[in-house]
Amino acid sequence: MQHFLENKVIPVLMKIGNNVILVAIRNGIAFTLPFIIAGSLFLIVANLPIPGWHEFLGSYANKLSVPVQATFGAIGLIAAIGISYNLAKQYNLDGLSCCCITVSVFILAQLDSQYKINVDNFGAAGLFSAIILSIFTVYTVRFFITHKIYIRMPEGVPPAVLQSFISLVPAVVCLALVWFVRVILDFDINGFFTLILSPLVHGLDTLPGMLILVALISLLWSCGIHGTNVLSGITSPIFLKFIAENTQAYLSGQPVPHITAEGFYNFFICAGGSGATMGLVLAMLLSKSRYYKSIGRVSFGPSIFCINEPVIFGVPMVLNPIMMFPLIVAPLVICTCSYLLMDFGIIGRPVFQIPWTMPPILNAYFATGGNIPAAIWSGCMIVISTIIYYPFFRIMEVKQLAIEAQEAELTAEVVH
């Protein structure tokens, strides 16, 4: 099994994770996080779950929600800028020029049937077209620059003016192509990309789809590869779209549509980090082994903030057949329980984007807009994690105690 993973599965996944386009998408989507979190802070303040809070705020309750339109309502546009900038930098192109062309192309693609800009598509609805158009723009610019098809200027021209003329030809071509498709052919670019990606979007909005994703991430971690980073280029745009739609529904008083929105994986599966390793950390803190107790002490602080590298590489979990099973099973069990609890309305669904380093219990409470059952379940997740990890940890602990006993005997013999 280990040989198959190392020689067949891992190389393929590593190629996917290191793909230039996926890396640009992952880093570009990260550009949106400060804006989303900033917008969420306004929402949290405006919707604190305190009796009489809305009455206390009065007319300011609606005013506090206004920044959401400039954050959640613009994540598609922001993502287009971030992706094009990162992709341009990887090809040593002028990032600012590519960003400006991308913005123009993106806006042109969002025209409605009356040729007016549909600002609703600047948000989550335009996220997929933002990704595709960013890639299209950068590769078009790269084609013209590589083949030296641009307007040349005499020596002595200021660099800013020179760059503007270099960008002129690819900018005209990009705008002309998108104009022809959207206006002359009357083809809905945004709707088309949304339709094409709908099977993947639907799959990650279901329990089976999430279980496959969680298992794959945990499998990569067991081989020493950051599974979340490898796959985030594919999954982040989808989960980001879900959380934006959840936030809008929550503000409108409508039923929250998505369970697996951004925050579900971090806050309702990964207690202590990927693999739900908080339970293992607690088991190590109570261990009789000096080695594991020290690892537990070192790992406890980071685990509170969902950072589990000390556990993964300290135990180690990597390439460890004993710990591979709980590393995969624990998040699968917790994922199933969390999904079903949300599906049946027992706990709240994610509606706010908050920092992924928020400690357990608090993260579930704030992400769901102050849902107390969700916070209680976050504590229960740690208990479940401990129960799953403990039998396997106990096997390693017994072996380690035997090693430490032998070392103690050898030390005593040397002393005498």
In short, what is this structure?
The chain is mostly helical.
Which features characterize this protein?
single chain; membrane
The secondary structure category is: mainly alpha
Q: How helix-rich are the residues, as a percent range?
A: over 70%
Beta-strand percent range? under 5%
Largest sheet: none
Compute the CA-based radius of gyration: 25 Å
SSE sequence, one letter per element: HHHHHHHHHHHHHHHHHHHHHH
Q: Which ranges are low-confidence, i.e. pLDDT below 50, for 5 or more consecutive residues?
A: none
Number of helices: 22
Q: Please, what is the average pLDDT?
A: 86
What's the total count of β strands?
A: 0
How far from one another are the termini?
47 Å
> What overall geometry do the principal axes of the alpha carbons give?
globular
Keywords: Cell membrane, Membrane, Sugar transport, Transmembrane, Transmembrane helix, Transport
Subcellular location: Cell membrane
Protein name: Permease IIC component
Organism: Buttiauxella selenatireducens
